[in-house]
Amino acid sequence: NSRHAWSVSNPPQPRDCMLSAWSSWSKCDPCQKKRYRFACLEQPSQFGGDPCDYSDKETEDCDTNNPCRNKVRCEGFMCAVTGRCIARRLLCNGDDDCGDLSDEKNCKKVFKKCDQKMEQYWGIENLAKGLNIFTNNLEGLVLDHRYYAGGCSPHYIVDTRFRKPYNVESYTPETTGKYEFTITEYDSYSNYESSVLKAKAVQSSFSFGIKIEGVFELGYNSNDNRFKKFIQRMKRFSSTSSKFIHARSELTVAIYKLKPRALMLHYEFLQRLRQLPSEYSYGEYRELYRDYGTHYITEATVGGIYEYTLVVNSNELQKAGYSLSDVQKCAQRGFNIGGNIYGVYVNLGISEAGCKSLLKEIGDSTSKKTYVEDFIVLVHGGASEHVTTLAYRDLPTAALMQDWGNAVQYNPEIIQLKV
């Protein structure tokens, strides 16, 4: 692909979004009594052009003499609104097993299976969502992790009592990687980009028909504001001679594993599946993938990732007789947490005054910077206004990391997964 450099005096012309002509109508679906057609995206909106803010699929009613062969047989209780089929033993047990409470209606007596108050696993709702592997987005709920099938055995994690959802095989608490930083030096933007930025890029090599094996990291999706700001700030240094120090700490809260079979789907997803035509229609399935993703999560690690990048002015550093390693050692010294940092030097080889001179520029937005051109933080997990405010202002301290770790415990994000 050729690249074009646009000058300020000659900006690119707006390009409007364009869709293809409509496909031909599908056959009349005997179960839905509908037929379908769709259009494909031919050109996305660019440079301020008009978006395609109209539908790219159409449906209309139709009649057919062909029989519907997709009728669902239920030998238990058929839920009134959601259409879910549940065992009769789950009626009048105090739980919303149907998802529409029809299993708890007209009860002469409620035999509560679960009297004691129990919590939901941390981060369990996100684990029930579908993942779009083309965009790294978590989409709508595919699995119902609020369905328990009458199960009520408490699972204790420390002093908290949790109720295990029917779909979950295991949710194992972990405390690995606590507050350990791995610090890496990069002597050019291209090295930093290939190692750090590309690792965060949306996974674009997946396609249908390719089996995805192994565990992969769930990076940031391109619409995530945290990631957008991070990339924007980093790209300012793409044509400079700056050097980079990247530090990363990963904290694992729990390992999640889904049951291998007989899963209970979320009732809204189930209804959408039942609305699909019997024969494949590209437009209808495309819409389902948009709303619910392409895959569901079978295994995952939940927790948090705390990382920062120091952008260093190599020319000024050299003039003062400092090296990139000196800055790294000072950053490690500044994070005075004990023996949990890889590569801590007993003898820094740089004076304490020199370290203070380097480190005082971090997070100081008012003074003119000599050595540290920027300090860029990215925090994944542990959503907390207090932690975020401190994190984006200065190098992490032992106290801040403890606060972040506590926040991650209750607000973990998916950091690795298997689909």
From TrEMBL:
UniProt key word Secreted: yes
Subunit organization: Heterotrimer of 3 chains: alpha (C8A), beta (C8B) and gamma (C8G); the alpha and gamma chains are disulfide bonded. Component of the membrane attack complex (MAC), composed of complement C5b, C6, C7, C8A, C8B, C8G and multiple copies of the pore-forming subunit C9.
UniProt xrefs under InterPro entries: LDL_receptor-like_sf, LDLR_class-A_CS, LDrepeatLR_classA_rpt, MAC_perforin, MACPF, MACPF_CS, TSP1_rpt, TSP1_rpt_sf
Protein name (database record): Complement component C8 beta chain
Residue ranges occupied by any MACPF domain in the UniProt entry: 110-419
SUPFAM superfamilies (UniProt xref): LDL receptor-like module, TSP-1 type 1 repeat
Physiological role: Component of the membrane attack complex (MAC), a multiprotein complex activated by the complement cascade, which inserts into a target cell membrane and forms a pore, leading to target cell membrane rupture and cell lysis. The MAC is initiated by proteolytic cleavage of C5 into complement C5b in response to the classical, alternative, lectin and GZMK complement pathways. The complement pathways consist in a cascade of proteins that leads to phagocytosis and breakdown of pathogens and signaling that strengthens the adaptive immune system.
The species this protein was found in: Ceyx cyanopectus (Indigo-banded kingfisher)
Cited CDD domains: LDLa (cd00112)
Keyword Cytoplasm appears in the UniProt entry: no
Keywords, alphabetical: Complement alternate pathway, Complement pathway, Cytolysis, Disulfide bond, EGF-like domain, Glycoprotein, Immunity, Innate immunity, Membrane, Membrane attack complex, Secreted, Target cell membrane, Target membrane
Localization in the cell: Secreted; Target cell membrane
Protein family: Belongs to the complement C6/C7/C8/C9 family.
Disulfide bonds: 92-107
GO cellular component terms given for this protein: extracellular region; membrane attack complex; other organism cell membrane
UniProt record, GO biological process: complement activation, alternative pathway; complement activation, classical pathway; killing of cells of another organism
PROSITE patterns tied to this protein: LDLRA_1, LDLRA_2, MACPF_1, MACPF_2, TSP1
